[in-house]
Amino acid sequence: MSRSSRAEPTERIEPAGFADVEQRAAEKEKALGEWLRARGRVAIGFSGGVDSAYLAVAARRTLGADNVLAIIGRSASYPAEQWATARRVADSFDVQVLELDTDEMNDPRYAANPANRCYFCKTELWSKLVPAAAERGFLTVADGTNADDVGGYRPGMQAAREQAVASPLAEVGFTKEEIRARSRALGLPTWQQPASPCLSSRLPYGTSVTPERLRRIELAERAVRELGVTGDMRVRYHDDVARVELPAAELTKWLGPDRAELLRAAVAAAGFPRVALDLRGFRSGSLNVLHGVTTA
Amino acid sequence: MSIFTSMGQAESRRRADQLAASLAGMGVPCKVEPRAALAVLMVESGVAQRLADGELRRAALALAREQGFTHLAVELAPPAAGADAALPRP
User: Fold this and answer.
1) Do A279 and B40 touch (CB under 8 A)?
2) I want to staple A146 with a disulfide (CB 3.0 to 4.6 A). Which of A169, A178, A217, B90 is the partner?
3) Contact state of B2 with A241 under an 8 Å Cβ cutoff
């Protein structure tokens, strides 16, 4: 598809310090370009999230259409909306896409949902993606891990290392904020998209992952979005209770009686008998805190 | 590790009851259902609305932390049977 169909950047109202971020980001993009050119051809694990979308587009601009392959791994834990975003970005920026089905749901080690669940998911993903890339002449495979990700609890990164998957954004020091700045400058629709980890991250460790549970979570989150909630939010699964984490700034509004009932009804309609609103609001890695894997 | 991973049900219940008593003391009468380190508040109609006040909410979170709960959520109860079923517009 023609690049002319890509979204134009919206009118800019720059926050304080934005110029500094843009400058740092532009410098890191140069370093990323050098990294990419040194490899020549690159396949990218492509989810349509902020990071992998930027990496795919930056690689396409640097190496040309024939030398970049964005590979989407599809499964029940991958939200349909995110797949649609991935396809939209690829179409708009003329990025080649390959879609593969992954089968982590049938791995009992994954389905049991241990704290290192992501390791089994990513092992399945990369064990299919890396050979598929190699068959097509792409010997370098990269993911969208950024510099902010490196210090957190991310067992999935171990699986990437085992399969020799590179993380160029992290290598050149790109932070999430800088990736958003460059995404915005390039006109990517993902530049202000909330972080979007897989749906299994809504289940507490030890609660088994099933397609039916993931489907309910996906429906509930879609329903909350349709009420007009923007920004980071999650519907966390606690058996019969759905615990909704909204942006902290929106809590006052949604605790009012009218909106609280709208929220309850929307989430209940997705199949949750009870709905509770978290009083602290959205927390990245909330369930890691709940289980004492990380601290608050 | 969360203190709740090694705690018995009786201790978990005791902490939940203490939290409920503290919350009642600040004008949020409720029952507290402990689910590991998550405390779910079950409140009468109209009480959840009081937690729209940010200061009260922060105080409630602090009380929950004192009892070892890392997460605090208030259950949104459905309208009582017989109440006007019409939903408000967003």
Assistant:
1) no
2) A169
3) no
pLDDT digits (tens, 9 = 90+) for B35-89: 999 999 999 878 999 999 999 999 999 999 999 999 999 999 887 765 544 444 4
Chain B: residue nearest A264 by CA?
B76
- Sheet containing A234-238: give its strands across: A234-238, A241-245, A274-278, B71-75, B38-43, B30-35
Give the domain range for residue B13: 3-74
DSSP state of A243: E
| Number of compact structural domains in chain B | 1
The CATH code that applies to domain A199-290 is 3.30.300
Identify which of B1, B41, B61 has the shortest CB distance to residue A292.
B1
Give the model's pLDDT for residue A7.
Answer: 40
Under the banding of pLDDT at 50, 70 and 90, the label for residue A290 is confident
Determine which of B12, B30, B76, B84 to mutate to test the interface with A (most A C-beta atoms within 10 Å). B76
